[in-house]
Amino acid sequence: MRTRSAVVDERGLLNNFAIEPKVYVDEQGDRTGFTPYAELLNGRLAMIGFVSLIVLEVVTGHGVIGLLANL
Question: Is 7 contained in some domain?
Answer without folding.
Answer: no
